[in-house]
Write a structure and sequence with these properties.
257 residues; alpha+beta; four-stranded antiparallel β-sheet; three-stranded antiparallel β-sheet; 9% strand; disordered C terminus
Length: 257
């Protein structure tokens, strides 16, 4: 399929964008484009919201921007740390290959260390930071899901998407994820006056986690660890974080009274 100078260079596994996008001599993998766009969306969203919540929020937005760049760079080039021979064996592979789960975990750890040190050094209130990150992350999830489209189990529902044969339809997992994220964003909008108190973080973790857990039941069956898939464990971790934070906030309020 071709439109002007924009060409689909390969078939995609799921209905939506292909695995690679080509514009003239430039080619980019859809997965990499999704990560770049998600990081950019997170930075823009956090910067826009931080304008309304004072100097501390603006400093927190700077840290989020730096952390997003760290995640992107470590995820993209982290494979070199695990296979340094690629530098002289296949130097172009450094730019072609993307990271996987291992590199994503390394990127998250690097960003977390940077944020912990920077937040303590600058004296930024943790609740302001958590609220801004929660908002930006949900926006990033929407952008990522819209680009890196995924399908789940087969379905007879009319909103099912076509993968290869028009005779079969599948649950639009990315579509469900976007709906959950938009619903949580609406909840944050209703509580916009609570930003900076940790309320956004509580809502985002509780409801986003619960929503993603619901979405997981329409995913393609995956190997389980202690009865749950890796996707479900991440969703449960979000819910647990929200419950723990809510309990801590309630205990603090009780002591104050």
């Amino acid at each position: 399929m071709q439109w002007k100078s924009f060409t689909y260079t390969s078939e995609t596994e799921w209905y939506g964008l292909p695995a690679q996008l080509s514009w003239g001599p430039f080619t980019i993998q859809t997965s990499l484009l999704a990560v770049i766009a998600a990081c950019a969306a997170l930075i823009v969203a956090v910067r826009l919201v931080s304008r309304f919540y004072g100097p501390a929020a603006k400093e927190a937005a700077e840290l989020v921007q730096n952390a997003a760049f760290i995640v992107l760079l470590v995820w993209k080039f982290g494979h070199v740390l695990f296979a340094p021979s690629v530098i002289w064996d296949r130097p172009l592979a450094i730019f072609i290959l993307n990271g996987g789960t291992r590199e994503a975990l390394l990127a998250a750890a690097a960003a977390a260390v940077y944020l912990v040190v920077s937040i303590r050094r600058k004296g930024i209130p943790l609740r302001i930071f958590l609220d801004l990150v929660s908002f930006g992350t949900i926006v990033a999830v929407i952008v990522y899901a819209a680009i890196d489209w995924r399908a789940g189990e087969a379905t007879t529902k009319p909103w099912g998407i076509v993968v290869s044969s028009p005779e079969f339809r599948y649950h639009p997992i990315s579509g469900y994820t976007i709906i959950v994220a938009l619903a949580v964003l609406m909840l944050l909008g209703f509580r916009r006056g609570k930003a900076g108190t940790g309320e956004w973080f509580r809502i985002a973790t509780l409801y986003m986690g619960a929503g993603l857990l619901l979405v997981s039941f329409w995913e393609v069956p995956a190997p389980t660890v202690l009865l749950f898939t890796a996707y479900q464990w991440r969703a449960l971790a979000l819910v647990a974080a929200g419950i723990i934070f809510s309990a801590g906030a309630h205990t603090k309020t009780t002591f104050q009274h």
